[in-house]
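tool_call: predict_structure(chain=1)
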Amino acid sequence: MKFPVSISVTEIAVKYNCQIIGDNNLEATGINVIHSVEKGDITFVDIPKYFEKSIHSEATIILINEKIDVPKGKALLLCTDPFHVYNSIVTSFRSKSLSDEEFKNSISVHPTARIDPQVIIKDHVKIGAHTII
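tool_result:
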């Protein structure tokens, strides 16, 4: 996920009560899991066997629960629960839920479609002609 504006590592550290280890002048442009990170992203790691993979990934800022050496050009944010902080950041940037009216307007169900009453339809769904769900 990319952020609409970059966020400084110090702003994140203050907001989530983390200690900065490494470059405290960095900015985050997004957040992602370790397998999908790009330069400028925040990621998290809370299992020692993955520390090296995280440190040497493209991630610029790494949420971590142990103090380790950090390469130049990166920052670690030391916190007790990296996944919780990661989740909080993602949640704060996730798009907001649609109102009931916006939700109703975001789905399209063809009049010939048949949908079981127990089916859950999410927003932005289009169900075509003669579809049976």
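agent: The longest strand covers residues 2-8. Proceeding to next step.
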